[in-house]
Structure formats: structure tokens, C-alpha cells
Design brief:
There is one protein chain. 79% of the residues lie in helices and 0% in strands. It is mainly alpha-helical. The chain has one domain. The chain is flat, with a radius of gyration of 16 Å. The two termini are 18 Å apart.
Length: 115
Amino acid sequence: MSKIVFNPHWLALFVGIVVTSFSQVLLKRGVSAKKSIITSFANSQTIASYLLFAVVTVLNVYAMQEIQLRTMTAWAGASYVIVAAFSKVFLNERIDLPRVGGCLLILMGITVFSL
């Protein structure tokens, strides 16, 4: 039986993917109900979203110290799947069959790449 080894660089990558997805939804919520471009930028949800994107940048730089860029890029596709799930939960958006199919293709691509 192989031993599972904790790798903080991979943790940084996965946390970054989830935080990126959450930031996208937060940004959408922040700009959706605003009347002008200025109020879209100057609200707490939009500002929090950009701060989280800055945190993700730091996480990605840390992850890149040990993980190849091509691997990180492949795994970043998981954010599309997570955004779809988050948009259903937090924005009450409908997930139609083509989106489900696209998410499945992305997950299959990540799986094949990781073999």
C-alpha cells in the first residue's frame, strides 16, 4: 500500500482553484444589481472579490515552485466545474445539459492528463 504524502504546494493549488471560483461568483453578485459602473466597482462584494484574486495570485506563485505549469493549467480547468456548481448554489442559475456535458468533459480531461 502506498503512503499518501501531504504536499503544501498541491494544497495551495487546490485552495486557489476553489477561491478563484468563489471570487468569480462574488464578483458576479457584486456587479449584478448595481446601476452604474462606479457603484459596481465601489461595493464590498466586488472589492472582496479582487482581494481574493490577489490571494490566489500568491497561492499560485507558491504552487509553481514545485508543480509544473502544464499541470497547473490542466487542473485550473476544474474551476469551470466549480463555478458551475457555485453559480447554481449561490446565484440560483440553471445548469442545463450542455453545461453538464462540458463539465464532465473537463473532468475527464483532467483525469486523463493526470494518469
